[in-house]
Design goal:
290 residues; elongated; 24-stranded mixed beta sheet
Length: 290
Amino acid sequence: MRKLFISGLIIFAIFFISGTVTWFAFDKAKYEKQNYNKTFNNHFSQLSVSTIGSEINIVKGNKFKVDYQGDNDVYVSKKGKMLKVTEKRATNRGYGLNFNPFHYNKKKLTITVPDKQLKDLSAKSVIGDVHLRNFNASSATIINSRHFSMEHSNLKYLNVDGSNSLAYICDSSVKKGNLKIDTGKLTLSRSEFQDSIFLLNEGDINMNKMKSSNDIKASTKKGDINYNFEAKPKNTLLKLHPGRGEKVVNNNNFKDGKVGKSKNILEFYTVDGDIAVSYTHLTLPTIYSV
């Protein structure tokens, strides 16, 4: 038994030393960090971004600017009013997966956009995060499999499609939204949505300190839906449909599930989960049996 242990230890040491030599002698040059930094004086109305694993950040600034830090190749092209940014695996590394334990490099792509110039954004990251900050546009389509966030932004149309994702939106407004997540969690805070649909296959939907007027349909098969008003609700109708769960309205502004006219509808569905509607200034709860 002891000989077997010693033999295993020797084999491990040989592979570890071999990996170290390979990294410093051959692989290290392949993973040298690359930087791309360029400012454009052009006026672009469309932006298309596609990455493999880089974190995408869209921020507000004075001029269009592309800043990349990572070890892949980045291609930037201009066509009319379109700016296209694409990240591809560095050609000198081939196309196999990297199993080298010594290599770790967080890739980051930041694109600066002047306020009120961009109309349409399309952003796709295979295994990277996508973040929008102080972003104003007509439409944004986001496809990613990890984390999406939007802060202090205003959009006429927002479409988000994620697999195993966390989505966070705060201090923002959307006139028409469509967010679809397979497994994950959706969190909204201090925001206003009209004519919007949120769909989760599995996960919770939490909407905190929301504005007084929102028109939202939300559904999760396995998870809870929690909605909290920051101010007194206006012209809102509640349509709450928990499957195997409870619905609790902790907001005495509602009379028979309604405040004022039914211009805004909060329509929530769960298959296996609870639905709760509350007010920041808590009141005595009204519990509806199902």
